[in-house]
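Hi there,

I know you've been waiting on this one. I reran it after we fixed the sequence typo, so this is the corrected version. Both the input and the resulting structure follow.
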Amino acid sequence: MSDPRTTPSIFTRGAVDLSALRPSTPAKPAAPSRPAAPDGAGSGAVPGTVPGAVPGAIPGVTPDTIIDVTEADFQAVLERSLTTPILLDFWADWCEPCKKLSPVLEKLAVEYGGSWILGKVNVDTNPRLAQVFRVQGIPQVTALIGGQPVEGFSGVLAEGQVRQYIDAVLKAAGVSVATPEDPRLDAADDALMTGDLDAAEAAYRKILAESPTDAAAESGLAQVELYRRIGGADPSEVLAKAEADPADIEAQRLAADIEVLSGQAEQAYARLIALVKATSGDDRDAVRKHLLSLFTVAGPDDPAVAGARRALARALF
């Protein structure tokens, strides 16, 4: 793998000149964010949060998770980015959109367990940093990888989009980390397991609205549809009906659903592939789409799905 400190990233803003911020005297270490004074006096901060944070910030922040970044200690922050990616959050007390984005960034900084650092930059007290990073509107997020700036984003993004940006930054930095648990997905899965299909569907659709390629949410939504299709059907009766009439398309599709839920996915795929071969026109297309929905339930990495996709391609062409 190439070294992100020497290899240009697709995000790199080469025109940003950081040399103007390098002091002639040794820089002091970057100061960790500190909880506000009990009354928040003199800081404008909300009691119990780090400076610049807003209500809803995640507790348990450590110096390796969220730091305050100032012009005076920026050189130390720059050097720290040689080993750990840093996301700079440009904000101000008066900025209402910042109060929406900052809690998301703080929450994710904690969830990712120190694989990256959130550096909070108050543009009112650090105007030179805002100028160097060409901050034209806040909130603005820019990353530092290997001492170099990385293209970021301005404005408020949904949490799923912020996660995607963070993952892209970590990939560019060559950082391999376990994907943190997504509480949105946990809530959706809990609703599914308790049989609250409406709540599960709403939760999965919300995730997909924010992260359209989320395979786990796609699988969850396909499971909701699967449970709705079987709707209290008697498995033995369904399978017996399908066995008695191989040409009954609805019976065959429902039998495949039952087999998937019974742990016999490969048998279900084979059943529907045989039906694809035996049908044509709209019927064939309906069976094909049904089979694809069962593939989605299993997820893209299931080896049985890979084999069944090849068999389906042969059946179609």
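Quick highlight: Confidence is low (pLDDT under 50) at residues 1-61.

Best,
R. S.
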